[in-house]
Each structure stands twice: as structure tokens, then as C-alpha cells.
Amino acid sequence: MTRRYLEDLQLGETWTTESLTIEADDVIDFGRKFDPQPFHVDPDAARTSLFGGLIASGWHLAALAMRLCVEARMFGETPVVGAGVDELRWLQPVKPGDTVHVKRELVEIQTMPEKPKRGIAKARIDLINQRGEVVMRFYGLTSIPRRPPDGAQ
Questions:
Q1: Which CATH number goes with the domain that contains 82?
Q2: Are 55 and 95 within 8 A, CB to CB?
Q3: Are 27 and 34 in contact, with CB atoms under 8 Å apart?
Q4: Is residue 129 part of a domain?
Q5: Could you tell me if 114 and 59 are in contact, meaning their C-beta atoms sit under 8 angstroms apart?
Q6: Is the pLDDT of residue 121 over 80?
Q7: How far apart are CA 75 and CA 104, in angstroms?
Q8: CA gap 94, 103 in Å, rounded
Q9: 78 part of a folded domain
């Protein structure tokens, strides 16, 4: 696998990650540590919530999307360095037993005159469940190195 530089990227480029199944224990564990709302941590209370059962925290889903993207090595050997997130939206609840994957599409490439050695790749990141529904969407901004002037890899 090789490094990818800003100059190697193309608008419209897409990647799809492997899938992963959300387990009830993971939902509860994450919820207890980071988002202790009843519908994330208490199966009995969750049954009477508007969701009718346990659901994964949106922050849990964001972390899982990051993991899937990093494991997919979409930029080759180039480390994924986050520069921000725009328009994070949770669109559908994700319940234990759901299987999700990420589809990522490159929507913008920016050079940064104030940082000539780096640029920004903006990608639409969709977390998609086993029914093909987009359950979460955001635009991830990734800082990517520019190709060195001498063309070295």
C-alpha cells in the first residue's frame, strides 16, 4: 500500500468499508461511560421510550464510523488526521443486532495557502444499516499532505 497525497485524490471518489454488527453489550457499555440516557443503558426503560428498545448513542455511531474508516485505510499509508466535522446528523435509530458500514464520497478538495504542505479533503460519510438506510451522515474534513516538491513518495 502506498501513501496518497492531496494531488492523488479525485472528486467523486468513493470507498465502502467492511460491515460491523452492533451488540447490546457494546451499546450499554458505551452509554454508561459516555451517554447515560435510559434508552442507551436500561433495556427495561428503553422499551417504554419513543424508540421501543435500546438504541446506540449517536456518539457511539460516530466513533464506530471513524473506526471503520481508519480500518479501511482509504488514504493508503497516509495517516488519517481529522480537521473537523460538518453537519453531523443522526437520521435513524440503530438497535442492537443492526449491521452497519460506511460509504464515503469525496466531495471537495482544498489547498490551504497558509499551510502549503497540507490540504483538506472533505467527504460525505454515510453510515448505512443492513436495510440500506442511511442512519447517520456527516461531512468529514481530513488534513492530507501535499506531494513533496521533489515527487518523493
A1: 3.10.129.10
A2: yes
A3: no
A4: yes
A5: no
A6: yes
A7: 12
A8: 17
A9: yes
Whether residue 1 is contained in a domain is answered as: no
Residues 64-105 have pLDDT tens digits of 999 999 898 877 888 778 899 999 999 999 999 999 999 999
Residue 150 lies in a domain: no
pLDDT tens-digit readout, 1-48:
688 899 999 999 999 999 999 999 999 999 999 999 999 999 999 999
Rounded to whole angstroms, the Cα distance separating 139 from 112 reads 18
Q: What is the DSSP secondary structure assignment for residue 63, as one 8-state letter?
A: H
Q: Is residue 151 over pLDDT 60?
A: no
Contact status, residue 55 vs residue 94, Cβ threshold 8 Å: yes
Number of structural domains (the chain) is 1
The structure's pTM equals 0.92
Task: Identify the domain containing residue 26 by its residue range.
Answer: 6-145
How far is Cα 46 from Cα 43, in angstroms, rounded to an integer? 5
Contact by Cβ (8 Å): 87, 145: no
Considering only CA atoms, which of 88, 79, 152, 91 is closest in space to residue 121? 79
Q: Where are the beta strands (DSSP E) in the chain?
A: 14-16, 20-21, 81-90, 99-111, 118-129, 134-145
